[in-house]
TrEMBL record:
Subcellular location: Membrane
NCBIfam families: ATPase_P-type (TIGR01494), P-ATPase-V (TIGR01657)
A cellular component term, taken from the record's GO annotations: late endosome membrane
Protein name per its UniProtKB record: Cation-transporting ATPase
Domain of life: Eukaryota
Membrane topology field: Multi-pass membrane protein
Keywords: ATP-binding, Magnesium, Membrane, Metal-binding, Nucleotide-binding, Translocase, Transmembrane, Transmembrane helix
Length: 1193
């Protein structure tokens, strides 16, 4: 268990990441509180007196709600718990403690616990004498209070402390009815129930968002001022924005969840063992951890996670892994030791676990007669439940744009507060009524803070999402589109991503009597002779015959097809059932007899299989020739196979030959065999006994070609200064060669191999840097050494390391890890957990990245190239299975990010322009009329907000990224200059119109152009604000501010280099022309009804004001292009003032550029003697990927 218990505060983290398929959930701290009656009564009074405002505040801040209503106490006494994430967001959530009664199930203490329950959390959670269980539910997972350990523990899963023998002994005979009932009540049903939230509930939830609450306040105020048209428009826009977002997510996420949910859970009927009544057919939602179930023959969808304890299964795990490759599952060994079963099985424990939602394709019983499994996890605790929860509770995004947007809004609110004070002073001094003063003061807030901002930003993202959908890229997390515009590092898998899915068998390099023989080419018609190598290729695989087809790993399929047994001896493969499973037209009697006679002495039967292990990097089978002896055949990573073989059977030039072929980019597989001693029972042999003292047979050489899109895409990314990294499970030399062929590593750059090893008999480790070069002559070697030093001096080098070295570095040399990642390009032999860890470490260097499958949910923007069900865990899914989607996503992300900046700046400037105009008119107790507001808000701003986002992405990726923060000198300068010019433009018009000889405060002169005279129109009797709207100042300021909005929209509509030129957005250009035409029409027209409704009057001699507007537009355009968007100028200013980026990545890069001793080529460091010159906060990151437990809270 993790953490210690303290009074009032327990820092026991909830580790929500799955141990089987790593997904990312927040680690949380838990605090205990007890409801206080007096405090609760005071809070209820506050709710009533504040008309619900305090309740709304507590909804936004649940920690304030707990602090106000409760007092701190121990977790044991708590009826409310407060959870806080330990990441940078520090998000609080409140959970009420609930009680589960089991008194009806337990009549007396002697009834419970039974044998299986003595040391389980179920018995330790039942309080005496009330027979109740204290529980909380966090992100669909239930936790119960362990009264002995004094902490909350997860239920819905079998405890990890059980040994292999204990699982067989305690659960092999099933649970009693009493045990099942108690566990069923405490754990809940075995379902992954994702209720469809009604649209109206989602709308209410969105409306309670702080910004939408502000919109609701604005709408209510506008209705009070009879400004109903725009209020209605804002309501419609907001509802449309929310509906589109909700609809899009429901269309893409929910069907995917529910299709698998209904197929995998409701329809499953399994044979269930219940002591002492025996087997019983039971619906899957009744299952509990510890139940024993029997798997029947035929296709079955697993309703839970289960440990296989007898027999063997072949399953399809594409729902979780994305790869439709049959996986062999073997039963858990009955090892008699004190190690927990996971530790005993090490990283191979998954080979004994059947995961929820996966399809059991075949079952094979052992001598005990049936295939049995013990339920390991149920409901949302399963691997599939984790996948669903990763969608329901995605990782929060820490994006600078959204943080800066909130800060900018706070500035606007402060700006509005100043305007409110000014408004109150002006109207109070002039003797206006208190109600009118309050309304006008509140109106200033709705003007200064644009209520339509969320809808405008959402609209831009939706347009981008639709463009991506047309290109075959689907998104379930629209907010991550903007993050794609900041990507500067991409992590690629190799096989199936950079290279073709299939492998071509290039050749076989056999070995006999400690020497390699002539290479055998499979392209020739000459077939392999019958012998150990031939038999190894025939039987050492995990292929199955399913529905008349051979299915399995593509490598195994290619290897088996090369033997030509696909045509000749399929009926003798694997086991006797293969003949029954073939289609009728392929198994005629004559064919069977012919094959039996031809291959009677050459048939091979697979007796036992040790499946491939990514940790061991090999697989083995025990096979027997017909009328022959039993033999072991092993294949795997050549360097591993060579270690397992007897030294006298391994050729002396093994390493040079391996280097020769891997350097050419081939995938090399080692083959070995040995004969078993007669009389030994093969099923009783351990894997260590089987895979020892082998005879080396040779190397199988396979070619994995690059996809035709790979090199052009990587070259495009490199030209855009977007770094590419390869993360693969293949051999490191093969990965380096593929990286060179793909263009990740330039021919002039050097590769440095980083090797880390644990020192035997010690807790320390060693770390060595050495150049990864092919064997050359001595003269060439000295030249190579000089070239390497030259490359290192210029920083043109790349690190390559394997997964084992990466893990040792992360554990023993953590301060060096950021240095290695800075130039790390190839990471080979990486396990899925190590891939996730690597992505997290890159993120800590301020590198935004994409990656593949199990790291998809960890990355800022993961792309799945698979259409399998597991792809729902990734934010993006591409219909095309090539990396050509990556530049498209980055282009659209950059365009979306720039559009968001443009929209935010425009909306802020539009509200500021309107705010300045209103405050200017308030000086004369004047203001804009309702239709004037409506024209600016609806006809100008709303239409511009909708059409500005139509501009598409620029087709070329430039070698720099768009800015990621609003609080930056160029953007602030742009906003400040536009505010100053807008203010000067309105003050100029305000003053100029008052200096005209025809100006009068009391009379409105309407100029008749064709008569050349003014007609006097007396203003209505009375005083007050509503009688002075149609003044010259009002008309002048309103028209100038409206034209100023058009100028700002055009100036801020940035095109190249991230978006297409503005003239390609035909709709936006037509809208601007139409709006400008309407403004000019209002200037020169003389239509009484129109002027009366719009509260404007004709102002003579507008030429001077229009000329000034034109000059300001040209000046703003010039400043925008010559100063604001002048990248070389800002770079020069940075260099002049010696400004350096404060990101970890840049700081570390500068430190290494000044370190002449880095990298320490051909040197070895030890973990207890490393001296680090880089600041500790750069490398001292905690990472729970390597060692985590999810049982404690």
């Amino acid at each position: 268990m993790l953490g210690q218990w303290h009074i009032g505060k327990v820092q026991n983290p909830i580790l929500e990441n799955s141990n089987d398929f790593p997904l990312v959930f927040a680690v949380q701290e838990i605090f205990g509180y007890k409801t206080h009656s007096c405090r609760k009564a005071l809070c209820i009074a506050g709710y009533i007196l504040s008309c619900g405002a305090l309740l709304l505040l507590f909804y936004w801040k649940p920690e304030w709600d707990v602090w106000a209503n409760c007092i701190r106490c121990s977790l044991e006494e708590a009826d409310v718990v407060l959870l806080r994430t330990t990441d940078e967001f520090r998000i609080y959530s409140r959970k009420n403690v609930s009680w589960i009664s089991v008194s009806a199930l337990i009549k007396s203490r002697s009834d419970y616990p039974a044998t299986a329950e003595e040391d389980s959390v179920f018995s330790k959670a039942i309080m005496k004498p009330s027979l109740q269980v204290k529980s909380i539910q966090v992100q669909k997972i239930r936790y119960v209070w362990n009264i002995y350990a004094k902490q909350f523990q997860k239920v819905g899963a079998l405890e990890d402390h059980h040994t292999c023998s204990a699982i067989h002994a305690k659960f092999g005979s099933g649970l009693t009815c009493n045990e099942q009932n108690v566990r069923r009540v405490i754990c809940g049903p075995n379902t992954i129930d994702v209720p469809v939230i009604p649209i109206w509930k989602l709308l209410i939830k969105e409306v309670l968002n702080p910004f939408y609450v502000f919109q609701l306040f604005s709408v209510c105020l506008w209705f009070a001022e009879d400004y109903m048209e725009y209020a209605t428009a804002i309501i419609v826009m907001s509802l449309l924005s929310i509906f589109l977002t909700v609809y899009d997510l429901r269309q893409q996420v929910v069907p995917c969840i529910f299709s698998s949910y209904h197929r995998g859970i409701y329809v499953a009927q399994i044979l269930h063992y219940m002591s002492p009544t025996g087997f019983q057919e039971l619906e899957s939602h009744h299952l509990v951890p510890g139940d024993m179930l029997v798997l029947k023959e035929g296709k079955t969808l697993l309703p839970c996670d289960a440990i296989l304890i007898s027999g063997q299964c072949i399953v399809n795990e594409s729902m979780l892994t994305g790869e439709s490759i049959p996986v062999t599952k073997t039963h858990l060994p009955q090892a008699d030791n004190f190690k927990p079963w996971r530790m005993h099985c090490a990283e191979d424990y998954k080979k004994h676990v059947l995961f929820c939602g996966t399809e059991v394709m075949q079952t094979k019983a052992d001598d005990r007669g049936v295939v049995k499994a013990v339920v390991l996890r149920t409901g949302f605790s399963t691997a599939k439940g984790d996948l669903v929860r990763s969608i329901l509770y995605p990782k929060p995004m820490n994006f600078k744009l959204y943080r800066d947007a909130l800060r900018f809004l706070m500035c606007l609110i402060a700006f509005a507060a100043i305007g409110m004070i000014y408004t109150v002073c002006v109207f109070a001094i002039n003797g206006e009524e208190a109600g009118e003063v309050v309304k006008k003061a509140l109106d200033v807030i709705t003007i200064a803070v644009p209520p339509a901002l969320p809808a405008a930003l959402t609209t831009g993202i939706i347009y981008t999402q639709r463009r991506l959908k047309k290109k075959g890229i689907f998104c379930i997390s629209p907010q991550r589109i903007n993050m794609c515009g900041q990507l500067n590092l991409i992590c690629f898998d190799k096989t199936g991503t950079l290279t073709e899915d299939g492998l071509d068998l290039w050749g076989l390099l056999p070995s006999e009597r400690n020497c390699f023989q002539d290479i055998h080419s499979f392209s020739s018609d000459c077939s392999l002779p019958w012998g150990p190598v031939f038999r190894a290729m025939v039987v050492c695989h995990s292929l199955i015959v399913w529905e008349g087809k051979i299915q399995g790993d593509p490598l195994d399929v290619k290897m088996f097809e090369a033997t030509n047994w696909v045509k000749l001896a399929l009926l003798f493969l694997i086991n006797k059932r293969c003949l029954r499973e073939l289609p009728a037209h392929t198994r005629s009697r004559g064919m069977t007899d012919c094959l039996a006679q031809e291959f009677a002495l050459k048939g091979v039967i697979i007796i036992h299989q040790f499946p491939f292990s990514s940790a061991l990097q090999r697989m083995s089978v025990i096979a027997q020739e017909i009328d022959g002896e039993q033999q072991v055949f092993t294949k795997g990573a050549p360097e591993i196979i060579a270690i397992l073989c007897r030294p006298e059977t391994v050729p002396s030039n093994f390493e040079s030959k391996l280097l020769l072929y891997t350097a050419k980019g081939f995938r090399v597989i080692g083959l070995a065999c040995k004969s078993l001693q007669p009389g030994k029972q093969s099923t009783n042999l351990t894997r260590e006994e089987v895979e020892s003292d082998l005879t080396f047979l040779g190397l199988l050489i396979m070619e994995n070609r690059l996809k035709r899109e790979t090199r052009p895409v990587l070259e495009e990314l490199s030209a855009a200064r977007i770094r590419s990294v390869m993360v693969t499970g293949d051999n490191i030399q093969t990965a380096v060669t593929v990286a060179k062929n793909a263009g990740m590593i330039s021919p002039t750059n050097r590769v440095i191999l980083v090797e880390a090893n644990k020192i035997p008999g010690s807790f320390s480790a060693s770390l060595t840097w050495k150049p990864l070069e092919e064997s050359k002559s001595e003269d060439y070697g000295s030249l190579t050494e000089r070239r390497i030093r030259l490359a290192l001096g210029s920083g043109q080098y790349h690190f390559a390391m394997c997964g084992k070295s990466y893990q040792i570095v992360a554990q023993h040399f953590r301060p060096l890890l950021p240095k290695l990642l800075l130039n790390g390009t190839v990471f080979a032999r990486m396990s899925p957990g190590q891939k996730s860890s690597l992505v997290e470490e890159f993120q800590k260097l301020d590198a935004e990245e994409e990656c593949d499958f199990q790291a998809l949910k960890v990355a800022h923007a993961g792309i799945s190239l698979s259409e399998q069900e597991a792809s729902v865990a990734s934010p993006f899914t591409s219909r095309t299975s090539s990396i050509a989607c990556v530049p498209e996503l980055i282009r659209e992300g950059r365009a979306a990010l720039v559009t968001s900046f443009c929209m935010f700046k425009y909306m802020a400037l539009y509200s500021t322009i309107q705010y300045l105009g209103v405050l200017l008119l308030y000086w004369q107790l004047n203001s804009f009329g309702n239709y004037q507001f409506l024209f600016q808000d609806l006809a100008i701003t709303t239409v511009i907000g909708v059409t500005m986002s139509f501009t598409g992405a620029y087709p070329k990726l430039v070698p720099y990224r768009p800015p990621s923060q609003l609080i930056s000198p160029p953007l602030l300068l742009s906003v400040v200059l536009n505010i100053l010019f807008s203010l000067s433009m309105q003050i100029f018009g305000f003053v100029v119109v008052q200096e005209q000889p025809w100006y009068s405060k009391s009379d409105i002169h309407r100029y008749v152009p064709f008569l050349g005279l003014w007609v006097t129109q007396n203003s209505p009797s009375g005083t007050g604000l509503n009688h002075t709207i149609d003044h010259y100042e009002n008309t002048t300021v309103w028209l100038l501010s409206t034209i100023n909005c058009l100028i700002v929209a055009l100036v801020f509509s940035k095109g190249k280099p991230f978006r297409q030129p503005i003239y390609t957005n035909y709709m936006f250009i037509l809208v601007l022309i139409g709006q400008l035409g309407i403004c000019l029409f209002l200037v020169f027209a003389d239509i009484d009804d129109l002027y009366s409704r719009m509260d404007v009057s004709i102002v003579p001699r507008w030429g001077k004001l229009l000329s000034m507007s034109s000059r300001i537009f040209l000046l703003l355009l010039l400043l925008q292009e010559a100063v604001i968007e002048n990248r070389p100028l800002w770079l020069l200013l940075k260099k002049t003032f010696r400004y350096h980026s404060k990101s970890h990545y840049k700081r570390l890069q500068r430190a290494l550029e000044q370190d002449s001793a880095w990298p320490p080529l051909n040197e070895t460091f030890f973990s207890d003697s490393v001296a680090i010159s880089v600041e500790g906060n750069m490398g001292g990151h905690s990472n729970p990927t390597f060692d985590s437990s999810e049982d404690a809270l």
